[in-house]
Design brief:
This protein is of the alpha+beta class. The chain folds into two domains: 12-175 and 346-376, Aminopeptidase (3-Layer(aba) Sandwich), CATH 3.40.630; 180-324, Gcn5-related N-acetyltransferase (GNAT) (Aminopeptidase), CATH 3.40.630. Helices cover 40% and strands 26% of the residues. 40% of the residues are buried.
Length: 377
Amino acid sequence: MTALPDSTPPAHESAGLRAEAWEGLEGLHAQREAWNELVRCAEVDPLGNDFDWVFAHISAFGDPREVFGWTLTDDGGRPIAILNFRCEPRRGLFALTRALITQDGTFDSEYLDVIVRPGFELASMERMLELLSSKRGVDCVVLTGVPDSSPSLAALRRLLEERKLPRRERVFPACAAPLPETFEDFLKARKKRIRSKIRSAMRRAEEAGAELIWSTEPETLAQELESLFELHQQRWLAAGKPGSFAGPERREFYKRLAPDLLGKGQLAFARLEREGQTVACQFGATIDGTYYQIQEGFDPEQADLRVGTALRGLMIAELIQQGVRSYDFMAGIGRHKTDWGADPRPCTTVAFALPRLRARLAYRLREYLDQRNASRD
């Protein structure tokens, strides 16, 4: 772990909020109690903003020396917000240095947000801009995939407008499917073609002796994760692509994350087994009535049995029985999701310049070029 430097910056005060600075993994870990308290009450998604998720992610992917942030408290010492970032390595001699939310940058974490106690969004965003503006070496900030319903996003947009700080926004597509009270109702809501496809795949899996199994034992979890890694890689290598688990970082992340989820009773890791072999698997989490589909894989040699479709159908049937009312596909949208009833879950990625001349000029130049190109279309 990277220890906090001896010269820890002092507390600052403005807008009635105190800011205690911290750095590195040790500094991040020290925020766990306050972090968990705020996530329980803040209007943020509970998966990608969970402390264990963040710590596992930065431990596997990041350079601890890049991590920094502030914890905002009121006059009574009550935690109000966690401002957690990592400083992205410079991408070129003339490139701007960007601050990202700690767990961003690898296409694993979705629905990221600034963790703020309800009612303090505007004051916290104002404090965040002040602190980031005073952070040496940071030119701009990128907040990826923030739900459009986020009160913090609304407050940030207001402040950026007031301070005339240039920003860029783009749609970050994500989607989720509502789940009814019965699986039969779920199937009836699908198009006839999709309904027949799901029923046929589930029937063929049953006829082939395939069985749905959930991972529930800590002793076998590591071996079951290896099945996920292998099947995911087989699928993508067969398509001529490297796959998500080609490198060791993402494997390490899942090895850290899975036991945390299992210990909290949130792991929803299902496998379809046939003749003692795993032919499809899906790794996810169930939190507050929502199932999050994080990763999946299947044996391409079993594609004729539609094992991936069969597994998802069997899982949804059991999730509905467990009282789960939303199947969240997370980032991305397409027919392979909308066919299952997924509706868009609007999110936005917002990037903005801090009040530095170089950053402002870079953003204004990009805005001018975009407008010029649009006028030519």
